[in-house]
Amino acid sequence: MTQTSRRLPEPAAAPVFDASSVEAVVCIPTFRRPDMLATTLESIEAQATKVAFAVVVVDNDAAAPVGLEVAQSFFRDGRLSGVATVEPRQGNVHAINAAFRLARERYPAAQYFLMIDDDERAEPQWLDEMVACARLQGADIVGGPVTPIFPEEASPAFRDHPVFWPAFGETGPVPIIYGTGNCLLRREVFDGLAAPSLDPSFNFLGGGDTEFFTRCRRAGFTFFWRQEAQIYEQVTPGRLALGWVLRRSLATGAINYSIDRLAAHSLRERFVLVAKNFALAPVSLQRAWRMLRESRHPLAATHPIGIAVGRLLASVGLMPQPYRYSS
Asked: How many domains does the chain have?
């Protein structure tokens, strides 16, 4: 059996509530999803693990912090150990940064910091899989799949679209992971970065996690993918729409351009960036044609074209803001 497919230890117990003994902290940013957050917390409560863990919930709606109330009810009833707070500055980056910062400060002995979104649920072995993988493989950052659960009426055109699926499908080392929806970071990652937080300029565009992990890679931190650390996300009917999928493709292109632009400091690097934008236009058509042949769904084939267009629009200052919250 290879090292990457090695069976990890079987889990078996409940969380320990002594803050000084906490090894791992599960961070959950939330915004106006009390019912979904309750489902997420129930899945964390159901973790079968010997790892002593706590939970940090950050509500990003100061006006009506319903998520705060849900989290506090779990802590008050002794169902989970942790802390909940409100981040008044709107934006998912602010909420994520607040969660990681509070987790590191409140639990100084913790070595592992995990994140799950408030519209997801984790399998009972998730926490054990992630922590055991970090220990066994010595990886600085571990990622896992967020598997979509589609409504029965969802057509194959949406079920097969790449915006809904994880970047990787097998356990093993990877060059980078792209999202915080299912991840683990060692404390050393935060201690080793000059700026140990996500960039707020990505607050409403999205992709702050991808930019953060890009900096982690440049700093020399290692990444590993644990396919068995399963998290599931319910695909809501609002996402099964042509407009939502196309906007997501455009946003992906804008995110990729923004990350490249932050790294382009010299005149030569900026010239290369411009050339890359224009070169991606014919490349995107080739990719679209290949995807059309493989999937036979025209909607999936629009994805690489949308990414290329999103890059070009971002280069002239036209940035989508899919995560701007309403007041």
From this structure: 2
Give the predicted TM-score (pTM) of the model.
0.89
Which structural domain, as residue segments, surrounds residue 299?
242-315
- How many CB atoms within 10 Å of residue 312? 17
Nearest to 122 by CA among 208, 24, 198, 207: 24
For the segment 218-273, what is each residue's pLDDT rounded down to a tens digit?
Answer: 999 999 999 999 999 999 888 999 999 999 999 999 999 999 999 888 989 888 88
Q: Are residues 235 and 252 in the same domain?
A: no
Report the distance separating Cα 289 and Cα 283, nearest Å: 10
Alpha-carbon dihedral of residues 298, 302, 305, 307, nearest 10 degrees?
-160
Whether residue 296 is found in the same domain as residue 205: no
Residues 182 and 165: beta-carbon distance below 8 Å: no
- Rounded Cα distance between 246 and 253, Å, is 11
Q: Are strands 112-116 and 82-86 parallel, antiparallel or unpaired?
A: unpaired
Amino acid at the residue 299: L
Q: Are 44 and 121 in contact (CB under 8 A)?
A: no
Q: Verify that 208 and 169 share a domain, yes or no.
A: yes
